[in-house]
C-alpha cells in the first residue's frame, strides 16, 4: 500500500517533538481551553500544528478520560492527520473497556490504532495497523511522576525483547510546569518506520499525555 503523500515530512524524521501552546487565559485562571500543539523536527522547525476539538463539558468534567478529536494540519493549513479518541475507562480494574484511539491519514482513511493492554503494574499499549494487526508495543515505567526527570515509554518489537525507540515526556522546569502548565514530548523511532506508524505514534503520544500527565505537576 502506497503511504499517503500528506505524510511526506514524517518520512525523513526519526525524532519528532510535540510542544503544547498554552493559552493566556488558561495560564492565568486555570480555565481549560482547547489544547493546541506544534509538531516539530529535531531542529525545532514546525512541520505540523494540531488542535484538540471537544466541548467544555468533556474538558472540565471528563478530563483526562475525555473523548476528543485532534486535527493535525501542515503549514499550509491542510488537515493531514486526525486522531479520534472515544470516551472510555481509565482504570486497570476494567480490562474490557480500556483506552483505544484511531489515527486517520488522510482524514477518513484509517492509518492505525493505539490500544491499551491490561497490566496491573506497567502502562502498556499496542500499535496496530489499519487492519488491526499488531505492529509494535509501547511499555511505560512503573512510576510516571518523573520526579523532575524525563519519563520514557519504550517502543518495542512485539516480542518486547527489543527496544527500537521511545516516547519521552521532557522535564522542562518547575516554574514552567507550575505556572504555564506546558507539555513537551519527544518521539524517537527508526527513520525507515512506515510513515503511517509514525502518525500513529503521534496519536499514542497524545493518549499517554492525557492518561498520565494531564493533572500532574509534571503534566500537560
UniProtKB/TrEMBL annotation:
GO terms for cellular component: plasma membrane. Transmembrane segments: none annotated. Signal peptide: none annotated. Keywords: Calcium, Lipoprotein, Palmitate. Its cofactor is Ca(2+). Pfam families: Scramblase. One of its GO terms (molecular function) is phospholipid scramblase activity. PANTHER family: PHOSPHOLIPID SCRAMBLASE FAMILY MEMBER 5, PHOSPHOLIPID SCRAMBLASE-RELATED. Belongs to the phospholipid scramblase family. May mediate accelerated ATP-independent bidirectional transbilayer migration of phospholipids upon binding calcium ions that results in a loss of phospholipid asymmetry in the plasma membrane. This is Phospholipid scramblase. It comes from Mionectes macconnelli. The lineage of its organism: Eukaryota, Metazoa, Chordata, Craniata, Vertebrata.
